[in-house]
Amino acid sequence: MGHDESKYDLETVLVAAEDASSLKPGKTKSLVERLSDKNRAVRYWAALGLFMRGKSGLKAGHDELTAALKDESPSVRVIAAQVLAQFGSDADNTISLDVLLKHASLDTNSIYVAMLALNALDEIDGRAASVIEQIKNLPTKSKVDYPRMGAYIPNLKTKTLADLQASR
Q1: Is 111 buried (19+), middle (13-18) or exposed (0-12) by CB count in 10 A?
Q2: Structural domains in the chain?
Q3: Could you tell me the pLDDT band of residue 43, with boundaries at 50, 70 and 90?
Q4: Which long-range contacts link 146-152 to residues 24+ away (Cβ below 8 Å)?
Q5: Which pLDDT value is given to residue 2?
Q6: Which residue of 26, 33, 92, 135 lies most exposed, with the fewest beta carbons within 10 A?
Q7: Environment class of residue 76 by beta-carbon count within 10 Å: exposed (0-12), middle (13-18) or buried (19+)?
Q8: How far apart are the first and last CA of the chain?
Q9: Long-range contacts of 84-91 (CB under 8 A, 24+ apart)
């Protein structure tokens, strides 16, 4: 009915999620291939599956993860950036930190995207030390009021900065 049925194929998303979380080495190649799927949820799970595989996931999908930094979905961009920042080269880290900082801002992103990006910055620990000042300057209030979630960003920002200070 006027929309691409593949976007809404729940079974395809569930298979991608299962492949990602199974951590079976034989699934890595299909995860790399799924980074170009039409469905953003499939691409998200593919990136997450490569993240869960650490350095081997990065090695298998480096070029595709780099391309995913420009994905139409902010969640895919953030997870791809986290993989590259956490497990990649210094050059990968530099490019990815820019992506993560951009998505951690409540000025231009939803609270959900900002939390995902801030969590990634927190997880990569010392590899984010070079952007402590930019993290300090991130807004903690959104233009949209999230009554139940209002403290998440300030608390996460405080934790991330404390972890980064400790990793110096």
Answers
A1: middle
A2: 1-88 (1.25.10), 91-168 (no CATH)
A3: very high
A4: 146/111, 149/111, 152/111, 152/115
A5: 41
A6: 26
A7: buried
A8: 55
A9: 84/58, 85/120, 85/124, 85/127, 85/128, 86/51, 86/120, 86/123, 86/124, 86/127, 87/54, 87/55, 87/57, 87/58, 88/58, 88/62
Neighbour tally for 2: CB within 10 Å: 3
pLDDT (0 to 100) of residue 148: 79
CB atoms within 10 A of CB 158: 11
Structure tokens at 32: 């790399």
Per-residue pLDDT tens over the stretch 131-148: 999 999 999 887 777 677
Q: Which two tokens stand for residue 30?
A: 């299909």
Which amino acid does the sequence have at 132? I
Output the pLDDT for position 69.
98
How many Cβ atoms sit within 10 Å of the Cβ of residue 155?
12
17-38: pLDDT as tens digits: 999 999 888 999 999 999 999 9
**Cα–Cα distance for residue pair 146/151, rounded to 1 Å:** 9
Tokens describing residue 86: 């956490």
